[in-house]
Design a protein that fits this description.
It contains four helices and 16 strands. With about 300 residues, it is α+β, with helices and mostly antiparallel strands.
């Protein structure tokens, strides 16, 4: 899915897609962000997701709410170009029960998360044909570090193509960009911006200019990753907000993530991809004499004794 796959909108706008003016951050290397996927929902909304298991992708619920048909997602590439990367079909969607779809177009959507269950697993061990790198997943769940322990972490970053700039629904960048951020204590951000205490407070370069609008390369679904763990996901439709609020705190959704992944292995249709593999050879094998054989031997001895007595 690229500029030529979304109805030709890109050709109608006078934008230099190879060098979108003023975008902050830097181009992502092939060795990073190997867990990123992107797709265009049936609501004509460009969204991003992250691979958390070989067959499971985390994304905002607002991107997939109301989807009635299976659709493709794309991975294995940092380029938003046609005929790049590899694709998978979304077979099932697991929506957080706390997501209130009646507030879909409001500024703050609580519990705006969903899991997409794919028709085939991604390979984490070899580079698939059509991919630019070996796909990898991002860590998540109960093992994630606490937010308070990340206040001095300098590894936090998120990636995007800039589709939220000025409210456009398609990316303005050809290449995936990286933005470095710092997680801050919640008191550094106004309470108004931390809806229900479920959003992160972060510091990043000012992302708005009078000439070009918002210049952060984030998209709906962009994830903040710190020390290899996904700790936040962009769920807000607003282009620019104080402290970067709009990133839901994923550490508050460990139960949803772990239980959702477990349930994905037992979906209604029982797709073959969900089956466990029990073909691994055991480390050792215990050999015992079957009881039926012992019974047969005892029976034979009794029969022999009976014959001897008759004789």
């Amino acid at each position: 899915m690229g500029a030529g796959q979304i109805g030709g909108f890109a050709t109608l706008m006078e934008i230099d897609f190879d060098n979108a003016a003023g975008f902050l951050g830097r181009k992502a290397e092939k060795s990073e962000a190997q867990y990123i996927v992107y797709y265009l929902s049936h609501a004509m909304m460009f969204c991003v997701g992250i691979i958390i298991e070989a067959n499971v992708v985390l994304t905002p619920a607002s991107c997939v709410f109301g989807e009635k048909y299976k659709f493709e997602i794309f991975a294995g590439t940092h380029l938003f170009l046609e005929n790049t990367g590899i694709s998978r079909i979304v077979n099932n969607i697991c929506m957080h029960k706390g997501y209130n779809h009646t507030m879909r177009w409001k500024d703050c959507n609580s519990d705006n998360l969903a899991l997409m269950i794919l028709d085939r697993q991604f390979s984490f061990y070899k580079q698939e044909e059509g991919a630019d790198y070996i796909i990898n997943r991002v860590r998540y769940g109960v093992s994630s570090p606490s937010i308070s322990s990340l206040y001095k972490d300098r590894s936090c970053k998120f990636y995007g193509w800039g589709s939220r700039r000025n409210g456009y629904l398609i990316p303005l960048l050809i290449h995936l960009f990286r933005m470095d951020v710092t997680v801050l204590p919640p008191e550094y951000c106004g309470r108004y911006w931390n809806y229900q205490n479920k959003y992160l407070c972060i510091r990043q370069p000012h992302c708005k200019s009078e000439t070009y609008g918002a210049l952060c390369p984030d998209d709906v679904g962009s994830a903040i990753v710190c020390s290899g763990f996904a700790i936040g996901m962009m769920t807000s439709r607003l282009v620019d907000r104080p402290c970067g609020v709009g990133f839901s705190d994923l550490t508050k959704y460990s139960k949803f993530l772990t239980c959702g992944v477990d349930d994905s292995r037992d979906v209604i249709d029982h797709e073959a991809v969900m089956e466990f593999d029990y073909t691994t050879k055991p480390l050792f094998t215990l050999h015992t004499v079957p009881k039926t054989k012992d019974v047969a031997v005892k029976t034979k001895k009794k029969t022999t004794k009976s014959v001897s007595k008759r004789s």
